[in-house]
């Protein structure tokens, strides 16, 4: 056999080798492709697997509820099958809790005997209508609801009947075991357990994500007492509405907040809208004379006025209006600042505001938070009603609390800032972190008795300066007043109770200080109603070491024989404050000073007519730069400056005021 | 080997001795997986679309039995028989594909299906294997019959198919057929320069498709930017793999699979991942890899150029389809709806894949005495005539 290699052979051979080489390349390519798939598979399953979502792998039968004996013992009401956290007061008393319920439904297609089933179901749930049950169980549907919100015991009873085609859907329902207590604060949830008002709405995310109970700053004991006293006052004076607030002036924690009329929180849906109205944060009321405290604080802090400066109480005529005091008040024509506060003279307060001037008055009020909704964990917090044009008449009327409308909580917040060393706080309904359930919660007689003798002098004589460190450290706290001015304001507020309009608020041994306020209500046609008032009293106790602010407001109180025809705050709101203080102070761990009350009072006394120190020319007759008669046509915002230009003595005064203003370290942000 | 004596010279006995029994076993394994995974994946899908729970399972039993029969029946054919079958099939499939443009059912914006009484058929599925064989014939026949312009005819047919599939549109099938065609030209010995040019054209065409077809663009965009857009399908698939882990949740224990759209078809591999885990999935990948690479390596000893080119075309289409399915389920490549051969639900797909593998088996059968080149001396050609 002859073997030769021809050209044709060579070509075939090369082609063949090329094909073989290319086949190997392709095999390698496919190995690489499948290798990549294998690597990606390893990554997707083992190396970095993407975890399935919980709902994707959730078991299709609900988990069997387990009891939680430890949790129950610790007062933790977190039930295992309940998702929404409960709400408690500062001592752990449950205010809102979700309880497990079940919805009963049926698949009529699986029903054997509808009539028998209906009869059996009625033996457990007698309220069901048998005819309706039979009708539903006989439909051609695959799903019908039979009953909603049955208790776990009823669920077990129905389950024990062993009826095929009956199923349960677990659910939960919100309950408010204390009914009316703190109803406005707690708010409500809708049928799907979403908060629609109050804390339930503002804390929606927290309540749904964390099952540990949400602890509020409220103390239900105080809340109950305050509601009790307020309701009594409301009934006695036949007021159409009322509101009271107790707030810790050093932490901003709200201990009690009551709005009347109120409603049962379990019945939110059917409650009258008027009862659901939270007067403490949504209600806007002209603050009346309680606002004079802000005017005085502003004038003192800015150095515009001093306790010995005198202001004219002669009625002011501006446009069609007259600013005057009640005819029954027979004031001297010129009152010192202390007297203005103690006796509450409107024209004098207006003069004080004029001395400060429109611009600084606006800046002050804005700084004190009176132009914005109060920062509080309630979605209902409303925006105050503030005039857009700040003319000279606005300066004067706002000086004695008219022409603006503020929610009561804003007044309480402002009052607390004047006495706690000058720190404006964010009021809060949340128990401050670290604050243990109130130290007075242990109500064992031994502890109370043991505490009383030691606490009495210790607490009631601590200088306020020691407390301000606390207040300044609170979130959102802001210094607005110097500690010295704050100390002075404490004396003035105490003076109002010892010698002024607030005498009826006195609670022996508690050194209550405060300011009355009676604002005439605006009638349906816009004018002020002469005999329909908003009577309010904003107070602090104990005045020597302020701990709590107590505020009471009565809407349209009527006169009674005991009030001799009066409807002003001194006759209704102030005595209510006294009753509240006397009852709640011991619960708050404060006991009346019965050992040396006179000595404590003397230490913070301030005369109604203080002597003028040397080197000062007091404001008064002949030195009244803010008098509108001196600058009748000047635009309001220029008032102070124009006055300074007109009168050399006034210029001297203004210069002094500005000098003081530059020296003071106010408005400094302490913590954002 | 398996009980049939070499003395038995009946037709079936000879077939059994000569057929590639390894590939045949691999096909049986895949069909087995197809049944098991259909039991796992399809009830949820069937319930979701409102069909009877067992509808997919019962249909798939029929389809896969039919597929097994077709594999065996086709593998019985001689290369000549395969060529005739492919030619006939090609003509029919071309006509049917053209018909889809006129009488097709529109599903999700594309006309790829023709409704038949019992089922709907996707003719382009059959076009793929038939065209591979026809191309192989055209490319190799031009060497023996000088008058036949094989290359221009092949290119012309390819252009027509391109036009048909672009009009449907079926970009996935189009790219598979193109890749298969390119692979065949490559193996047939096309100049490496043209191979490079062809690859460049494919890239250019892909970019063109990206610009021209919004659904292509959206899928590529979603692949490139995992944080943008809707990834429900692919995320669910990956969560299924993640839930499976190394060993899987166990048969019937999958949960994510119930939420997986197309769990029975395009995403069946994720069901395997969730219930049987990484190891079994690796095994499935291995089976596909074995079928493809074994066929390619067997061709090294093959001297009939038609068989080489035809088998390369068929097996490339098969392997590519498996890769695209598993790759897109694992988010390795942009999502492309393509079935996993023998495993996914689908009549057209099962029968077309069976035809493909049947042809491969037929072409790679040992043909005793048919070889023109003796084994062991591949480089030499003995010419008795010239001796």
UniProtKB/TrEMBL annotation, chain B:
It holds the Pfam family FTSW_RODA_SPOVE. This is Probable peptidoglycan glycosyltransferase FtsW. The chain crosses the membrane at residues 22-45, 57-78, 84-102, 147-165, 192-213, 276-297, 306-324, 344-363. Belongs to the SEDS family. FtsW subfamily. One of its GO terms (molecular function) is lipid-linked peptidoglycan transporter activity. It is a multi-pass membrane protein. Its EC number is 2.4.99.28. InterPro entries: FtsW/RodA. Its main location: membrane. It is found in: Membrane. The lineage of its organism: Bacteria, Pseudomonadati, Pseudomonadota, Alphaproteobacteria, Acetobacterales. It is an enzyme of class 2 (transferase). It catalyses: [GlcNAc-(1->4)-Mur2Ac(oyl-L-Ala-gamma-D-Glu-L-Lys-D-Ala-D-Ala)](n)-di-trans,octa-cis-undecaprenyl diphosphate + beta-D-GlcNAc-(1->4)-Mur2Ac(oyl-L-Ala-gamma-D-Glu-L-Lys-D-Ala-D-Ala)-di-trans,octa-cis-undecaprenyl diphosphate = [GlcNAc-(1->4)-Mur2Ac(oyl-L-Ala-gamma-D-Glu-L-Lys-D-Ala-D-Ala)](n+1)-di-trans,octa-cis-undecaprenyl diphosphate + di-trans,octa-cis-undecaprenyl diphosphate + H(+). It comes from the Bacteria. One of its GO terms (cellular component) is plasma membrane. Keywords: Cell cycle, Cell division, Cell shape, Glycosyltransferase, Membrane, Peptidoglycan synthesis, Transferase, Transmembrane, Transmembrane helix.
């Amino acid at each position: 056999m002859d073997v030769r290699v021809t050209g044709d052979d060579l070509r075939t051979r090369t082609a063949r080798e090329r094909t073989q080489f290319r086949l190997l390349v392709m095999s390698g390519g496919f190995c690489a492709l499948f290798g990549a798939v294998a690597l990606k598979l390893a990554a997707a399953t083992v190396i970095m697997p993407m975890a399935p979502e919980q709902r994707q792998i959730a078991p299709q039968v609900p988990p069997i509820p387990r009891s939680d004996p430890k949790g129950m013992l610790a007062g933790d009401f977190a039930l295992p099958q309940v998702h929404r956290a409960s709400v408690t007061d500062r001592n752990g008393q449950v205010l809102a809790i979700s309880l497990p319920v079940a919805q009963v439904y049926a698949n009529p297609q699986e029903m054997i005997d509808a009539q028998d089933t209906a009869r059996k179901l009625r033996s457990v749930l007698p309220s069901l209508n048998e005819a309706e049950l039979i009708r539903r169980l006989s439909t051609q549907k695959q799903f019908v609801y039979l009953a909603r919100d049955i208790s776990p015991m009823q669920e077990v009873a129905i389950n024990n009947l062993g009826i095929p085609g009956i199923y349960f859907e677990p659910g939960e329902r919100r309950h408010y075991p204390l009914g009316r207590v703190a109803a406005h604060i707690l708010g409500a949830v809708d049928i799907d357990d979403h908060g629609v008002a109050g804390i339930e709405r503002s804390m929606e995310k927290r309540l749904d994500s964390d099952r540990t109970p949400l602890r509020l700053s409220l103390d239900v004991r105080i809340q109950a007492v305050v509601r009790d006293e307020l309701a009594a006052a409301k009934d006695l004076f036949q007021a159409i509405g009322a509101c009271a607030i107790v707030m810790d002036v050093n932490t901003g924690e709200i201990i009690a907040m009551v709005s009347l009329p109120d409603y049962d929180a379990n019945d939110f849906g059917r409650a009258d809208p008027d009862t659901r109205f939270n007067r403490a944060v949504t209600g806007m009321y002209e603050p009346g004379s309680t606002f004079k405290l802000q005017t005085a604080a502003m004038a003192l802090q800015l150095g515009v006025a001093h306790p010995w400066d005198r202001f004219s109480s002669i009625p002011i005529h501006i446009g069609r209006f007259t600013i005057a005091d009640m005819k029954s008040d027979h004031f001297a024509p010129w009152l010192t600042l202390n007297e203005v506060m103690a006796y509450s003279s409107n024209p004098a307060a207006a003069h004080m505001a004029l001395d400060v001037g429109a611009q600084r008055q606006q800046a002050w009020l804005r700084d004190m938070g009176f132009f914005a909704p109060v920062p509080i964990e309630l979605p209902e917090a409303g925006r105050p009603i503030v005039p857009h044009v700040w003319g000279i008449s606005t300066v004067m009327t706002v000086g004695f609390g008219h022409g603006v409308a503020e929610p009561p909580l804003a007044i309480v917040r402002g009052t607390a800032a004047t006495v706690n060393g000058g720190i404006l706080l964010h009021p809060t309904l949340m128990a401050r972190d670290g604050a243990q359930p109130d130290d007075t919660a242990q109500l064992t007689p031994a502890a109370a008795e043991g505490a009383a003798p030691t606490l009495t002098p210790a607490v009631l004589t601590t200088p306020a300066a020691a407390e301000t460190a606390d207040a300044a450290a609170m979130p959102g706290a802001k210094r607005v007043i110097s500690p010295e001015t704050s100390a002075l304001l404490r004396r003035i507020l105490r003076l109002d109770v010892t010698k002024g309009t607030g005498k009826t608020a006195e609670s022996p041994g508690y050194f209550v200080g405060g300011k009355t306020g009676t604002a005439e209500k605006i009638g349906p046609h816009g004018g002020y109603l002469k005999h329909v008032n908003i009577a309010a009293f904003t107070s602090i106790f104990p005045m020597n070491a302020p701990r709590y602010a107590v505020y009471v407001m009565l809407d349209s109180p009527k006169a009674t024989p005991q009030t001799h025809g009066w409807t002003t705050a001194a006759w209704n709101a102030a005595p209510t404050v006294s009753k509240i203080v006397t009852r709640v102070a011991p619960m708050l761990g404060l006991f009346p000073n019965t050992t040396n009350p006179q000595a404590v009072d003397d230490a913070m006394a301030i005369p109604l007519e203080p002597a003028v120190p040397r080197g000062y020319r007091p404001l008064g007759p002949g030195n009244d730069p803010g008098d509108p008669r001196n600058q009748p046509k000047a635009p309001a915002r220029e008032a102070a400056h124009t006055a300074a230009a007109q009168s050399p003595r006034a210029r001297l005064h203004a210069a002094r005021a500005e000098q003081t203003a530059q020296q003071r370290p106010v408005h400094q942000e302490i913590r954002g | 080997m398996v009980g049939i004596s070499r003395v038995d010279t009946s037709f079936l006995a000879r077939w059994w001795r000569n057929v590639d029994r390894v590939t045949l076993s691999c096909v049986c394994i895949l069909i087995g997986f197809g049944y098991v995974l259909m039991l796992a994946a399809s009830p949820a899908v069937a319930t979701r679309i409102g069909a009877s729970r067992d509808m997919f399972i019962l249909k798939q039993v029929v389809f896969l039995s039919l597929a097994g029969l077709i594999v065996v029946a086709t593998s019985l054919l001689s290369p000549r028989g395969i060529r005739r079958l492919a030619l006939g099939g090609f003509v029919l499939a071309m006509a049917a594909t053209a018909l889809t443009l006129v009488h097709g059912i529109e599903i999700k914006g594309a006309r790829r299906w023709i409704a038949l009484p019992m089922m709907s058929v996707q003719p382009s599925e059959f076009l793929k294997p038939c065209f591979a064989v026809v191309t192989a014939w055209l490319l190799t026949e031009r060497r023996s019959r000088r008058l036949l312009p094989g290359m221009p005819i092949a290119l012309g047919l390819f252009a027509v198919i391109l036009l048909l599939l672009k009009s449907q549109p079926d970009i996935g099938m189009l790219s598979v057929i193109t890749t298969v065609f390119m692979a065949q030209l490559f193996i047939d010995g096309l100049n490496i320069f043209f191979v490079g040019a062809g690859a460049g054209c494919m890239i250019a065409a892909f970019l063109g498709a990206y610009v021209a077809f919004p659904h292509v663009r959206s899928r590529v965009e979603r692949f490139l930017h995992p944080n943008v857009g809707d990834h429900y399908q692919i995320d669910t698939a990956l969560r299924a793999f993640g839930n499976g882990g190394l060993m899987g949740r166990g048969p019937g224990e999958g949960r994510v699979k119930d939420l997986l759209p197309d769990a029975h078809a395009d995403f069946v591999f994720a069901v395997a991942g969730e219930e049987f885990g990484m190891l079994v999935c690796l095994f499935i990948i291995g089976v596909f890899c074995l079928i493809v690479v074994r066929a390619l390596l067997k061709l090294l000893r093959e001297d009939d150029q038609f068989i080489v080119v035809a088998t390369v075309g068929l097996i490339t289409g098969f392997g590519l389809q498996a890769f695209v399915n598993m790759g897109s389920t694992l988010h390795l490549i942009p999502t492309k709806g393509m079935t996993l051969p023998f495993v996914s639900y689908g009549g057209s797909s099962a029968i077309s894949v069976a035809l493909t593998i049947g042809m491969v088996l037929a072409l790679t059968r040992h043909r005793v005495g048919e070889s023109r080149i003796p084994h062991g001396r591949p480089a030499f050609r003995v010419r008795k005539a010239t001796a």
